[in-house]
UniProtKB/TrEMBL annotation:
Stated family: Belongs to the FliO/MopB family.
Cellular component terms per the entry's GO annotation: bacterial-type flagellum basal body; plasma membrane
GO process annotations (BP): bacterial-type flagellum organization
Annotated source species: Hyphomicrobium sulfonivorans
Ranges of compositional bias, category Polar residues: 85-100
Residue segments, region Disordered: 78-110
Name by which UniProt lists this protein: Procollagen, type VI, alpha 3
Classification via Pfam families: FliO
Keyword field: Bacterial flagellum, Cell membrane, Membrane, Transmembrane, Transmembrane helix
Length: 110
C-alpha cells in the first residue's frame, strides 16, 4: 500500500513538472531562471558621526560618493571611475594616502 502511494505521489510530481514545463508559466519558470546581474552595490562606507555616513556606491561601473543621514541626503561626487581591472591595490592605497591628486602621482614635482 505504501509503495503504491509513493508511486502515485512521484507520478503526480512528474506530471506537474511536465505541465509547468510545457505551459511555460512565467510565475513558475521565474523560480528557476538565472538571476539578473547586479547593477548596483555599496563599495565602501564610513561613519562620519552617529547620524551621518558616507557611502561609495557603484552603478554600472561608475562610482558615486553620497552622504546620508543628515537633514538632506547629498551627492558629494558623481561619475567617479572605478578601479581598473589589473590595477594593484598598492597603487590605489598610495593614491589614497597622497596629498596630490591621483592624476598627478606619476608626474614629476614641478
Amino acid at each position: 500500500m505504501r509503495v503504491l502511494a509513493f508511486a502515485l505521489l512521484a507520478a503526480g510530481v512528474v506530471a506537474a513538472a511536465w505541465v509547468v514545463r510545457k505551459t511555460r508559466n512565467p510565475r513558475f519558470s521565474a523560480l528557476f531562471a538565472a538571476k539578473p546581474t547586479r547593477r548596483i552595490e555599496i563599495v565602501e562606507q564610513a561613519i562620519v558621526d552617529p547620524k551621518r555616513r558616507l557611502l561609495l556606491i557603484r552603478r554600472d561601473g561608475i562610482e558615486h560618493l553620497i552622504m546620508t543621514g543628515g537633514p538632506v541626503d547629498i551627492v558629494i561626487e558623481s561619475g567617479i571611475d572605478g578601479p581598473q581591472p589589473g590595477s594593484s591595490s598598492l597603487a590605489i592605497e598610495r593614491a589614497s594616502q597622497s596629498t596630490r591628486p591621483p592624476h598627478l602621482l606619476g608626474e614629476a614635482a614641478e
